Amino acid sequence: MKKFILIAGMMLACISGFAQMQPGLFSITPKLGFNVASMSNSGKSANSRMAFVAGVDFEYQINRQFAFGLGSIYSQQGIEDDPWTLKTDYITLPLTAFYYPVRGLGIYVGVEPAFLVRKKAEIMYGQHSQVAELPNVDKVTERYINEYGLTYEGIFEHSLRAKRGIVSLPIGVNYEFDHCVFGLKYSIGLGNAVVGGGGVSCTHNVFQISLGYRFNVFGDIKKVEYKREKKDEKKEENSQK
User: What Å distances lie between residue 153 and 76, 175, 203, 234, CA to CA?
Assistant: First the structure.
């Protein structure tokens, strides 16, 4: 989180002389990137899962400093807890409010509902591997302990269930240069995503890095600036008369 704040501050310092965004701009931004996903209460041995993210963002500029955004994102999440990898993938629909202190730099916060589309766990133990559908991971763990001498203590000892719908709080920053949009986002889970026996109750937290390309559908910045210049010229002519 400290690195996230530091990077955002550096980006702000580098572009503090830029003009602000123009109102009336509606844009579509396809993007690709990767997640560093973790889960609270998943045990000390659990590690983050690095996985793929792709989708599209829609944004409407209300005025020079504020905009609303809506996205449709395929987000791979989960954790790794040797020898297990939990794969819980979602379609997320982030609804965000942007603040542009300077042109090109957008800081945002919002709400991000997500809907489960995949819930699998994969075990890799020596030459042996198996994919298990939740909630049957405890049975597979027990089999590997009995047949292959696996030593394991963690959440995969229990029957796990992934909830179909979850909600997160996304906080992020985007920087645009020549229509290319570099994004950093941290999504804080607001409720349990995976629950199970033995008191297992886990929440997703996801750090995301993405790169997209912004297409201005209408209200192009140059056209808006041109109209504004013409309007100012008319005002000046009227004042001189």
Answer: 25, 43, 19, 75
